[in-house]
Fold each of these.
Amino acid sequence: MRPEQADEVQNISTLPINDASARWRMPYTAKPRFIQMETVTKCNAKCPFCPQNEIVRDPARMPTETWKKIVDDTRGWGITYRPFLTNEPFVDNRMPEIVRYIKDNDPTARVEFNTNGELMTEKLSGELLEAGVDIMRFSIDGLSREIYEPSRIGIDFTKVMERTQRFLELWDEGGYRDKVFTELRMIEVPENKHEVEAYKDFWGPRCSEVLITHMYQWPWTGQKREDVVLKPCLKVLDEMFFYTNGNATICCWDVHERAVVGNVNEQSVGEIWESYAARCMRATLDDGRRDLLNLCSRCNAYQEYDFSRFATDAGTG
Ligand code: SF4
């Protein structure tokens, strides 16, 4: 859940209290609202800031029965599905089939992608729009080759620009402006700061929205034990994440399976969401004890966020 969503949260169906003695009481939704599925482990880029190249998980491709089970288990729940995790989604050539499967059988479902755009051929663009994709975000961190290519190692800038623009032309000409949200996003860093205004001018008229965002720090990327922030977490309130092997984790930053709470090949998604392992992790986070969870013990996310509105009598926020 994003900080601005947590600020507004009210009247949602939540899980029963985890631990009455915890110092905060966070509003976990009764069922997940966002599900990410790592349908493949690979990426076509080797970006220096991303731990994707550390992944050695098997299998490299999620079996069809696994992603179908995740979708079947959650049909009608109003889920936004993101069929990717730390990988580039369109390395998986099954994506149009996956979108069709999600959308054809569930009118409450939404499908969202984040892509670097390089593999977005015209054929794939048409198939995804026809299959019913709802949200397409393109991550392009610069408006010139000199700025872009050093940060997105292995990706051809010309291809990215041509293919992204072609997708957006098909989106516009095909009458998808009101049905599909498209976004261009750029992580602002000192190297590309001077291109921000030109970036907005170029992409603004071509898509639904331009987002300029900031670099975040993944857990376990240099933080020491003493850097841990002893606060609850917003990321775990309404999302679930699945690896190619069916294991489920609580956090999209869990590249190395440090916070696995179940496996969808053995349990239903609902069982995993309410499992003992998941409840223990929530109770620990609600007490601000990230230091007791392996994954979270090197995480300083949300250190500026004011959690006081969620504080209980058991402590101060
Ligand atoms: S690592 Fe833990 S504390 Fe950090 S964002 Fe993920 S779940 Fe939250």
Amino acid sequence: MAEEKKMFTVTIDNIKVEVEAGTTILMAARKIGGDIVPPTMCFYSKLDKTGGYCRTCLVRVSAGSTADPRPMPKLVASCRTAVMDGMVVENITNPAVLEARKGVVEFLLLNHPLDCPVCDQAGECDLQDLSYEHGKEGTRYEFKRRTFERIDLGPYIQLHMTRCILCYRCVHAANQVAGQREHGVLDRGDHAQIATYIQQSLESPMIGNVIDVCPVGALTDRTFRFKNRVWFTKPVDAHRDCPHCTGNVRLWLRGDDVLRVTARKDQWGEVEEWICNECRFEKKKVSDWTIEGPTRVDRHSVIGAGHYTGIRKPKEIFKEVMDGRDPKLLMDIHTVSDVNKVNLNEIPGPATGATFSGNPKSAGTNITDVKEGVGRNMLGTDSTNPNTP
Ligand code: SF4
Ligand code: SF4
Ligand code: FES
């Protein structure tokens, strides 16, 4: 007979929930859902040993358990603290927790450029959301922020440590999903950085997943970088028969161009199924995929804005009221511009002025043209300046 599971009752922000013994406070809160779920920047339920680094998930335990109802003396990281039977937890109902979280955000941003307008992650960035929802409008930090050169980790991934918050997710993903860790955190304290030892490229066929787990714009897809803002692209779910992974992915389309392929993410922003590099980086044609339909974007996000389903187009009445005449166009832009001749998914890097000057296959002289590179990427622009692609 199957062993009966031991269940604990825990109260989070005055809501009771029953969970299995060994569940963390965070996972118990996720079972309830809604605003009372603490934010996370380093925890990732699909990866072992994550959590405990960033402290954004701090909560107050005002009663430890029924057996010992004393409060815990300090705020605890909910992603690493297991519930006890009768535990009482305060998150958004306790102003001290929210104030402490503001402090954590301020710390996370000490060395962060916060250059969202030119960052590839903007619009789908956990740190951006966290700063808006839990941060302060100013910083007390007066010193120069640390900066790093961009590093090309092989042909597909670029690391810009300037934006890294050292959450370790990519290290665990490389260990556990790609099964081949060639990078990690080198040095300590203010010098700590994600690095590949002697800047080797990351060769595993599953290594692209580090891009999806990175909560910020530190690890980016070189086949997509700066080709478009995510909120201009349309996410659809699609699949293909893939010998390496399940082939269930999300395509990010602009018209008929597949600008980006990513794994599908759940309501917590976590990958549902890991996908291989071939699906992610090599299959950039609509004909490579069977489209299932528009992605349902659960998270409050600019990506969700503008992707409506079931829209009814208003009736066009111009001709009717103008006695059958067509509207006069000031200028038909499609006849004078090469914009529609450019296949963004086919050019090797972001479009530049050169792309639209009679050579739609050209990606100009932008640094991301150079896909073969490994190591420091110092071409073209000041690579320690985050405000450049
Ligand atoms: S990673 Fe990019 S989008 Fe996110 S907060 Fe930093 S600069 Fe903004
Ligand atoms: S590169 Fe991204 S995933 Fe890796 S530690 Fe930095 S922030 Fe985390
Ligand atoms: S999410 Fe809990 S410490 Fe980072």
